[in-house]
Design brief:
alpha/beta, 21% helix, single chain, six-stranded mixed sheet
């Protein structure tokens, strides 16, 4: 990959998390993190989704987006909870890829349309999993879950400052600085055409991120889509003491790699960082289908 300002900034981001001297945990005490991208062994334009598996077997799917191929995607396995940070199509899932490696890494084929229910709703219903959301998203998504044949009670509201427990994983909601308009394509009544004609989206409250605390003690920050925000220091680092961060680096719509490097170096200060939402085909981490394991101090023991 040629040297550019982008790659130099990403190098700074990758170097931001120093190695620790902690003794590696036993293999059965690790958290397993598996990106579910569009192309095997690559980090591609639509890649958002990751599965986090606690040492007790609890499995949490983060922002399914367009690369998880519905509830029947064989990579999913058991899913106990689905986390959604906001309702933009690349996270909620207005469509998904028809097969592994469809299209090109920089322009994946997401030709399977799943509106108005969304990929996230279809997966939560198919897996009978909890769907954890913030803001005003619960009411809308509960209605969509019901329309898809699920139980509206699957949708759990988690606003800033609150926490919920799923198996061995404690989930907390933290702020994100982004937009959160619902595309009219996810609506199936007369409001959809009116909003589309006016060039408007539907209001579903603010976006968010999450902090996960696993049963082995690892604390992970999942940024969602965000810009630089003081809460990354005040809440994520000082209160939750996150040791692992999954940070968006796409630029334009979210923090770019330089801004993300600042967040990691000066604000969150984790022991390990995983890049997300790069929108750059040449990147090589996190690699779809390659599972990473982390101990309580965020020391990567394999797959990194």
């Amino acid at each position: 990959m040629k040297t550019t300002a982008f790659t130099l900034a990403f190098a700074a981001l990758a170097a931001a998390a120093p190695a620790t001297a902690a003794t590696p945990a036993a293999p059965d005490a690790t958290v397993r993190i598996t990106p579910l991208g569009s192309h095997d062994g690559e980090f591609c334009a639509f890649d958002r989704a990751m599965v986090f598996e606690d040492p007790d077997g609890t499995r949490v799917l983060y922002d399914p987006g367009r690369t998880v191929r519905g509830a029947d995607d064989p990579r999913l396995g058991q899913i106990d909870a689905v986390l959604l940070t906001h309702v933009h199509g690349d996270h909620l899932g207005d469509a998904h890829t028809p097969a592994a490696n469809a299209g090109e890494c920089g322009k994946p084929d997401a030709s399977v349309k799943v509106t108005p229910n969304s990929n996230t709703v279809n997966i939560a219903v198919g897996k009978k999993a909890k769907l954890v959301v913030g803001g005003e998203m619960r009411g809308f998504l509960a209605a969509r879950v019901k329309a898809a044949g699920g139980d509206p009670k699957q949708v759990q509201l988690l606003r800033f400052g609150g926490s919920a427990k799923v198996g061995g994983v404690t989930i907390a909601s933290v702020p994100a600085v982004h937009s959160n308009g619902l595309d009219p394509a996810f609506l199936d009544d007369g409001h959809a055409e009116a909003l589309k004609a006016a060039g408007l989206t539907a209001y579903v409250g603010p976006p968010g991120g999450y902090v996960l605390k696993f049963s082995n003690g690892l604390v992970a920050y999942l940024s969602g889509d965000t810009g630089v925000t003081a809460e990354q220091d005040l809440v994520v680092r000082r209160f939750y003491n996150a040791k692992l961060a999954v940070i968006n680096i796409g630029g334009t719509f979210t923090t770019g790699p330089a801004e993300a490097a600042h967040v990691i170096n000066e604000m969150v200060k984790p022991n390990a960082v995983i890049a997300s939402h790069a929108n750059e085909a040449p990147m090589r981490v996190p690699l779809s289908g390659r599972t990473m394991t982390f101990d309580a101090d965020a020391k990567c023991l394999s797959g990194c």
